[in-house]
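RECORD TYPE: inverse folding
INPUT: structure tokens
STRUCTURE:
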């Protein structure tokens, strides 16, 4: 049997998914007043910032506490990028292995590529965010943060779409996390497109992230404790 389709290897993918969930929780959350565009989360507000004056408004929110939180979160995010890239790529390649159809194998490989490329855009976004909290506030910097961020989110939601489609083919307990991945896709891509044309807060972003997290948690449990379920579905 392929080494990726042994129970220990599948459990490693499940453990990576647990690590993704744990790191997500460790990143922390902050609600702030006085943010532009109706945002309450200063990190998301800066990720999708539309102009230099908005950068200045974000970093000054809560008497500068927002900037402190953003800087701390951005530094943590470099580790998070590694964690989610490893987790998502490993999951994608695993799903590619359990499918015998050429096109579904290709979908799994493409999902892995989307996750890896999203991580690269995330690094570019973080570089701009650190410049912002250090005092730079120009329209050019806003574009250098915003557009890599939109690209990152679009790629992650395309990853979610492909993983959801691969999982739903199992027609068993894997259809449950598949539903959460597909819901995340619909909400997330709506949020990306809406924000691209009209920059402001959209509830679809946090809802999509929550749905993706639930899907990953279900997979983490299933792959870690019942890896034989996935092996039994090989070729279906």
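DESIGNED SEQUENCE:
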């Amino acid at each position: 049997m392929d080494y990726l389709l042994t129970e220990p290897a599948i459990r490693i993918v499940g453990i990576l998914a647990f690590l993704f969930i744990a790191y997500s929780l460790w990143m922390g959350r902050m609600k702030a007043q006085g943010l532009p565009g109706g945002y309450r989360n200063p990190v998301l507000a800066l990720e999708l910032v539309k102009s230099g004056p908005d950068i200045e408004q974000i970093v000054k929110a809560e008497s500068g506490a927002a900037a402190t939180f953003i800087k701390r979160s951005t530094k943590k995010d470099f580790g998070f990028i590694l964690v989610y890239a490893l987790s998502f790529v490993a999951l994608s390649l695993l799903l590619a292995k359990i499918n015998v159809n050429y096109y579904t194998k290709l979908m799994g490989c493409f999902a892995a590529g989307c996750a890896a490329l999203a991580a690269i855009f995330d690094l570019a976004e973080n570089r701009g965010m650190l410049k912002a909290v250090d005092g730079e506030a120009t329209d050019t910097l806003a574009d250098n943060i915003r557009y890599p961020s939109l690209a990152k989110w679009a790629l992650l939601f395309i990853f979610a779409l492909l993983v959801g489609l691969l999982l739903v083919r199992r027609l068993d307990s894997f259809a449950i996390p598949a539903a959460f991945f597909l819901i995340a896709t619909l909400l997330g891509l709506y949020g990306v497109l809406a924000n691209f044309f009209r920059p402001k807060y959209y509830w679809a972003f946090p809802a999509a992230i929550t749905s993706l997290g639930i899907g990953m948690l279900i997979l983490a449990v299933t792959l870690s404790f019942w890896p034989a379920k996935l092996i039994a579905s090989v070729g279906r």
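NOTES: The CA atoms of residues 3 and 9 lie 7 Å apart.
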